[in-house]
Specification:
Distance between the termini: 26 Å
Structural class: mainly beta
Radius of gyration: 14 Å
Amino acid sequence: MPTDAGLPQALHDAGSPRVVGGGGIWFYAPNTGHWGDLLSEREEGSAGKYPLWVGESSAPTVTVRGVSETRGVGRAELAPTAQGLPGALPMGVEVPGPECWLVTAHSATGTASITVRAKT
């Protein structure tokens, strides 16, 4: 996990040092230590919730694509809260099958990427 270098004051004040990202966008790291542990198997692939912290008023663009030998693309669905942005932004991620998936969120002021390993 990253150090406090570059961590937005709002995240530091909230006691959320377990984040990955930079600039104006950060993924909250899972308590389990593995991104893939947040996925649940579904009829077609896997899905999980991956919350973001966004430090600006507009939602990021998120892509989900296979890494290396993993082919295909997944889907991310943002679910803004009544509190709006800047702040926490819940997000659902779906991947079509097992192996490794790169989830990347782009905002106007930063980029955050995680690699998620989906099990069979």
